[in-house]
């Protein structure tokens, strides 16, 4: 197979940065510009912008069905020391022209072996380009403590024919989803929605993560679209317990009783006649 292989699209939110304690991992994904021998080389650069070393760093590619690549173990990344790695991606024997998603997930831990991860994504194009008729978006969401929150993916079909699209939700390891892969029917010239539940699965409070929704469908051409959502993890909202309310209740009760007694003494006892 001898086809042009181009960088088509890289998400505007990339490179993604996820803060974890004193480790701040910046990951940039560089997609190939030319296909050679039915394989492609994907390059990635990583730098720890924090002040603490990242340990047991491992990078893996999440690819479309039929694509394959080995993961990379990078060891320890010292603060402010850039590191580059590459992946040899093998492609299926028979592949349509089109756009294909590439997601890089990076795993690492701090000095206490607490695990963290981050994801970075982009699209590659094989062969000729075609207009993209399917688009999607997700709004930012907030998770409080260990609770879960709904996240809605909106898919717009700008074409004149209905489409059934495959959707994969790709999350960092610190978050958990009620759905990871599904199909969605999108009528022509209309919008369809898919709501999932996102749950905290070890994310630290006051951290920010990104979730990717990867959409794929095809006819005689393979189409892909990637949208992302920012997820903020905040401290759990604390509700006042009954034991907290009791002191307030007794204080108010004492004030009411004191006021009643004061009014009684000021106005005299009930039934008592004032002397002329």
Characterization of the model:
Helix content is 9%, strand content 53%. The relative contact order is 0.16. The chain is mainly beta and 276 residues long. It starts with a strand and ends in a 9-residue tail after the last helix. The strands form four sheets. Strands 1-9-8-5-6 form a five-stranded antiparallel beta sheet, with no helix packed on it. The chain has two domains: 1-129, Sandwich (Immunoglobulin-like); 131-267, Immunoglobulins (Immunoglobulin-like), CATH 2.60.40.10. The chain is built from one helix and 18 strands. A hairpin with an 8-residue loop joins strand 3 (23-30) and strand 4.
Secondary structure topology:
Blueprint: E1 5-10, E2 17-20, E3 23-30, E4 39-48, E5 54-62, E6 72-77, E7 83-90, E8 98-109, E9 115-126, E10 134-138, E11 141-144, E12 148-157, E13 163-170, E14 175-177, E15 181-186, E16 191-200, E17 207-218, E18 222-234, H1 242-267
Parallel strand pairs: 11-18
Antiparallel strand pairs: 1-9, 2-3, 3-4, 4-7, 5-6, 5-8, 8-9, 10-12, 12-16, 13-15, 13-17, 14-16, 17-18
Q: What characteristics describe this protein?
A:
mainly beta; 18 strands; Immunoglobulin-like; five-stranded antiparallel β-sheet
At the first level of CATH, the class of the largest domain is Mainly Beta
Secondary-structure-based class equals mainly beta
Mean pLDDT, nearest integer? 86
Overall geometry comes to flat
Provide the CATH architecture of the largest domain: Sandwich
Poorly predicted runs of 5 or more residues? 7-17
Q: How much of the polypeptide forms β-strand, as a percent range? A: over 45%
Query: What separation lies between the terminal Cα atoms?
Result: 118 Å
Q: Might you state the CATH topology name of the largest domain?
A: Immunoglobulin-like
- Computed Rg: 29 Å
Specify the number of helices: 1
Total separate domains? 2
* Topology, number of strands: 18
């Amino acid at each position: 197979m001898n086809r042009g292989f181009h960088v088509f699209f890289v998400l505007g939110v990339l490179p993604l940065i996820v803060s974890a304690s004193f480790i701040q991992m910046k990951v940039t994904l560089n997609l190939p510009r030319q296909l050679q021998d039915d394989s492609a080389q994907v390059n990635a650069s990583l730098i720890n912008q924090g002040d603490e070393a990242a340990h047991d760093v491992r990078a893996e590619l999440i690819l479309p069905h039929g694509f394959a690549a080995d993961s990379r173990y990078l060891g320890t990344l010292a603060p402010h020391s850039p590191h580059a790695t590459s992946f040899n991606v093998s492609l299926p024997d028979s592949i349509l022209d089109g756009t294909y998603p590439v997601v890089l997930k990076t795993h690492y831990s701090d000095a206490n072996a607490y695990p963290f991860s981050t994801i970075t994504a982009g699209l590659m194009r094989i062969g000729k380009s075609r207009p993209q008729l399917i688009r999607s978006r997700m709004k930012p969401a907030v998770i409080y403590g260990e609770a879960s929150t709904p996240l809605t993916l909106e898919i717009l079909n700008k074409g004149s024919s209905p489409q059934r699209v495959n959707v994969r939700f790709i999350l960092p390891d610190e978050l958990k989803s009620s759905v990871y892969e599904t199909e969605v029917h999108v009528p022509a010239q209309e919008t369809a929605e898919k709501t999932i539940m996102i749950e905290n699965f070890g994310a630290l409070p006051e951290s920010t993560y990104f979730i990717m929704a990867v959409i794929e469908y095809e006819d005689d051409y393979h189409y892909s679209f990637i949208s992302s959502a920012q997820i903020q993890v905040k401290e759990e909202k604390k509700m006042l317990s009954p034991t907290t309310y009791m002191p307030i209740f007794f204080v108010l009760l004492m004030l009411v009783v004191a006021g009643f007694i004061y009014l009684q003494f000021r106005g005299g006892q009930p039934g008592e006649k004032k002397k002329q």
